[in-house]
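To: structure subgroup
Subject: Chain for Friday's discussion

All,

I'm putting the inputs and outputs inline so they're searchable in the archive.
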Amino acid sequence: MLFRSVLPALIRKVHLGKCLQHNDWDKIREDLNKRPIEGIDGNAEKKEILSILEKYGIICSTAGCDSCAEGSCSDKVIVEIWGSGKPMREFLWSEEMAAACVFIMENVDFKDVADISANEVRNTHINIGTGKEISIKSLAEQIKKEVGFEGELFFNALKPDGTMRKLTDPSKLHQLGWHHEIEIEEGVKRMYEWYK
């Protein structure tokens, strides 16, 4: 499958959209050689690459445009994103997830989190997260800005949105003394730098 999670999926799609907009076939081929899509790698013909990109929502705004394949397209590129863009998501930098786990192992005792009443243990879980959410639309706009994509983001509301909210409550972890430090803007910047 091409895209597995919303953040890396959007980064890749917007990056490939920028490459297509700028007729940067070297970068498109490099990307596909590292991560082929349905067996299509950077050695494929341009028309075959354009076809697979279009299938996954990276589209030249002129249907059937032959100029893209010739490397001379000046049309706008559209990146299709499934859903309305309204669902809210929470993102945590992976290294901070690891840091939170280490913090808990080194600093938290079971008695600090357990609710022991009537010889029953309850509420021992600790959520790790930021407690902050961003809409898919705002995230896509943030990625578009970071990548430098000048094309259009098209939110296809005919496709499913998925769960509208996925937010953790990290208040217990905050009370124990751990807080995230990397905000979404910095995370997008770091992730795109790594991706490039």
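Points worth raising on Friday:
The chain has a mean pLDDT of 89.
The domain at 6-93+127-195 is CATH 3.90.25.10 (UDP-galactose 4-epimerase; domain 1).

D.
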